[in-house]
Amino acid sequence: MYLLGYDIGSSSVKASLVNVITGKCVSSAFFPKTEAKIMAVQPGWAEQDPQNWWDNLKLATQAVMAESSAKADEVDAIGISYQMHGLVCVDKNQQVLRPAIIWCDSRAVPYGQKAFETLGENTCLSHLLNSPGNFTASKLAWVKENEPEIFEKIDKIMLPGDYIAMKLSGTICTTVSGLSEGMFWDFQKNEVAGFLMDYYGFDHSLIPEIKPTFSEQGRVNAWAAQELGLKEGTPITYRGGDQPNNALSLNVFNPGEIASTAGTSGVVYGVNGEVDYDPKSRVNTFAHVNHTAEQTRLGVLLCINGTGILNSWVKRMVAPEGISYAEMNTLAAQVPIGSGGISILPFGNGAERMLENREIGCSLHGVNFNLHGKEHIIRAAQEGIVFSFKYGIDIMEQMGIPVQKIHAGHANMFLSPIFRNTLAGVTGATIELYDTDGSVGAAKGAGMGAGIYKDNNEAFATLEKLAVIEPNVKDRAAYDEAYARWKSALEKQI
Question: Is domain 251-435+464-494 annotated with CATH 1.25.40.10?
Answer without folding.
Answer: no
